Amino acid sequence: MRTSAKPASRTGTDGSPVFLGHFGLALAAKRVIPRASLGTTVMAAQWADGIWPVFVMIGIEHAEIRPGVTVVTPLDFVSYPFSHSLAADVGWAVLFALAYGTLRKDWRTALWLGVLVLSHWVLDVVAHRPDMPTWPGGPRLGAGLWNSLPATLVAEFALFGAGLWLYLRATRARDGQGSALPWAFAATLVIIYLAAVFGPPPPSERVLAITGLAGWLFVAWGYWIDRHRATVVAGTAIAARGLAARSG
Ligand SMILES: [Zn+2]
């Protein structure tokens, strides 16, 4: 335990490892694979960060909290070969695509969801310092965008803003919830992100893992949003998965 770690404030969001760029790609994916719910695309883009807290909790992956290790995040990813190595993420991408394709019989969408799972590794290599394993025990990569706060903020908000814009254009609200929910989702993510970047670091690896699990709430939220928005194709709205057929 590092004594340099500042105590956590009481908001409960401190240091929660939510990064906006992954959500930007999940939102943008709606344009390419409109039949996949936003919940599914968030799950795919966030897959590595979704399983990571579980592996930390059972003790097979490790992170330390070291303020200053990068400018943006105090997290030192000591070991995470099962959630964040290229080899493992290729495996997860194939499994994700196979699961979706088998369940939904839509292999084009399944293929893109696999790409989305793998996109997480690519974005993380850009952001992280060289701690991203190629395979368990293999060389570690990282371009270190997190060493620059301005560059990180520009990249994260550009990806997220573009993704949100694409999602809102690819869909339309079917009711009041459909209008309000995407903005509430975006605002909550931005607040949590800014709290993680500018707030105090998490007090322990265990708290970090627990707050990390909260990322799954955004998967559920994605399904909720998607149920209240219809997919727009060539100027008309079609029913997502046939649910809106009654209203035309
Ligand atoms: Zn990650």
Quick recap:
With about 250 residues, the protein is mainly alpha-helical. It has helices at about 20-30, 40-45, 45-55, 80-85, 85-105, 105-125, 150-170, 175-200, 205-215, 215-225, and strands at about 60-65, 75-80, 130-135, 140, 170-175, 230-235, 235-240. Zinc ion binds near residues 48, 49, 84, 120 and 124.
Bound molecules: zinc ion
Instruction: For the record, give the distance between the C-alpha atoms at the N and C termini, rounded to a whole number.
Output: 59 Å
Largest sheet: 3 strands, antiparallel
Uncertain ranges: 1-14, 243-248
List SSEs in N-to-C order: HHHEEHHHEEHEHHHEE
Q: Beta-strand percentage? A: 5-15%
Structural class: mainly alpha
Give the mean pLDDT: 89
Which strand order does the major sheet show?
5-6-7
Tell me the number of structural domains: 1
Number of helices: 10
Helix share bin = 55-70%
How many strands appear in the DSSP assignment? Answer: 7
Radius of gyration: 18 Å
**Shape annotation:** globular
Protein topology:
Blueprint: H1 20-32, H2 38-45, H3 47-57, E1 62-65, E2 75-79, H4 81-84, H5 86-104, H6 107-127, E3 132-133, E4 140-141, H7 149-170, E5 171-173, H8 176-198, H9 205-213, H10 215-227, E6 229-233, E7 236-238
Antiparallel strand pairs: 1-2, 3-4, 5-6, 6-7
Zinc ion binds next to α3 and α6.
Please tell me about this protein's structure.
By secondary structure, the chain is mainly alpha-helical. It has one domain. It is 58% helix and 10% strand. A hairpin with a 2-residue loop joins strand 6 and strand 7. The N terminus and C terminus are likely disordered. The structure holds zinc ion (ZN).
